[in-house]
Every structure is written in C-alpha cells, then in structure tokens.
Amino acid sequence: MAKQEENFLDYVPKHNSLFEYRENKAGNIEVKVHNKGVFNKIAQVVAKKPKYSYIELDAFGSFIWRQMDGQRTIYEIGGLVKEKFGDQAEPLYERLCEFIKILHKNHFVVYMNKVKQK
To answer: CB under 8 Å to 35, separation ≥6 — which residues?
Structure first.
C-alpha cells in the first residue's frame, strides 16, 4: 500500500507556548523574543541593546495569528482570511502557507497534528 502524502493545508498550527505575545495600541500582535547568545549578550552590555525584542505582525499576520488556536487547519484559516480581506489576500494560500512556514521555522508556532516521520 502506497504511503499517502501529507497536505500542508491540513496542518493545525498553534502558538508556541515558549513565546509570549501581546496586542499593541495599533491592534497588531507583537511576539516577544528573548535575545540570547554571546553576541546578543555583548550587544546588551556594550550597545545597551534590549534583552527582549518584539516582532510586530502586520494586519494580515495579526489576523492569522488570532486564528491559530490549535483547532483550525491552515485551509480553514485561509477561508477566514478570504472572508475578511477578500482580494487583498490573493494569492491567498501561497502567501498563507509561506507565512506559517516562516513562523514555524522561527519556532513561533507548532503543528498540533504533525507526526514526526522515523
């Protein structure tokens, strides 16, 4: 029996609990990132750089972030984005998938239904 390929749109993203986030005055989401490592430590001492940075998401990103509840698939989130932003969101699924992949690569989100392959 052939192994069925996974569809990225079936993934269920959820915020990684290791990262705090907040809504700023403009209504956008800001994800708090701890600046760790030797170079960041030196920059904090020498150049008075902050220990934490805040990554601000734009209106699209903030809306998508709010939809990632560990229940909705990427496909379902795409439908909500289309409903809210209409043609402004096009090309919808290409942009949405790329955005979520970037969040995952930076460990801001995890996939609830993704099983690691052996």
So the answer is: 43, 44, 49, 50, 51, 52, 53
